[in-house]
Structure formats: C-alpha cells, structure tokens
Amino acid sequence: MASTVHELRPKAGGDTEKITINLGYIDLGHIDLLVQDGFYSNRTDFIRTAIRNQIERHADAAKQSVARKNLDLGLRHYSREDLEAAQAAGQMLHLRVLGLASIAADVTPDLARATIASVSVLGALQASAAVKAALADRTR
C-alpha cells in the first residue's frame, strides 16, 4: 500500500536560524499546557506564533525604521559577479539587510574586502568563514 502521508510544514532548513532562549518554569508550563490542550502543535509553534504577533503589533514602527535606515528587506544575495561589477565600476557596497544576506561561496576574501565597505545585517549573514573573517572589522 502506498504511503499517503504529506508533510504539512517543511522541516527547518536553510531559511531558518536556530536560537536559544531561557524561560521560567511557570512560563514553560503554561506553554506546555496550551500545547497539551491543542492550541499549538508544539513549543516551537507557540514561540513562533508569539514572535510573529509581536512583530505584527509593532509593524508600523518597524516599517518606518526599515525606511529610515535604508535596509533591504528579506533575502539579499551577493554573487561574485555582483561584486566584480561593483569593483569594475569603482564602487564600494554598503550591505544593509533586515533578513538574510548571503555572499556567494565563490567570493574570495580579497574580492569581498575590495568591494564591501560595511556590513549591517539584522537577521543572519551567510558567507564563508574566510569572507566573514575578512569583513569582521567592517561588520556591525
């Protein structure tokens, strides 16, 4: 008999970042009670929902801050070709991202230093360890 199990929600992968939080026993107990009573599928579901609710609650202030700080919102990928084009044009890039900034794996530390003047990421930065080290003094 063929399996008819369908995954409702993809497993955490490349689009998530793991964090650790400390909670008091009573707060944790309340979360477990709500999970047990079927309001949430698990602790993670509760915490994600709570975070999303707080983000939505402060959405207007966040939008104003994103605009004021001139941040790219979401996923911003910088390829080797992007950086080479900036280098050819004599431009230095200022990476300002709220979400995920990724620098391609084929970007060398020398190319990154030659083309990236500053890095400010609210969220996560994905780059090789060598590129991150080369940009450490330019990262806020």
Task: Describe the structure in your own words.
The chain is elongated, with a radius of gyration of 20 Å. The protein has a 3-stranded parallel beta sheet with strand order 1-2-3, with helices on one face. With 140 residues, the protein is α/β, with parallel strands linked by helices. The chain has helices at residues 25-36, 43-57, 59-68, 80-88, 109-115, 129-134, and strands spanning 72-78, 93-103, 116-126. The relative contact order is 0.10. The chain has 2 domains: 25-57; 70-138, no CATH class. Strand 1 (72-78), helix 4 and strand 2 (93-103) form a beta-alpha-beta unit.
The pLDDT mean sits at: 91
- Structural class of the secondary structure composition? alpha/beta
Strand composition percent? 15-25%
Total helices: the number is 6
Fold blueprint:
Layout: H1 25-36, H2 43-57, H3 59-68, E1 72-78, H4 80-88, E2 93-103, H5 109-115, E3 116-126, H6 129-134
Parallel strand pairs: 1-2, 2-3
Helix pairs in contact: 4-5
Protein name: CopG family transcriptional regulator
InterPro entries: RHH_8 (IPR041088), Ribbon_hlx_hlx (IPR010985)
Organism: Roseicella aquatilis
Give a quick rundown of the structure.
By secondary structure, this protein is α/β, with parallel strands linked by helices. The protein has 2 domains: 25-57; 70-138, no CATH class. The protein has helices at residues 25-36, 43-57, 59-68, 80-88, 109-115, 129-134; strands at residues 72-78, 93-103, 116-126.
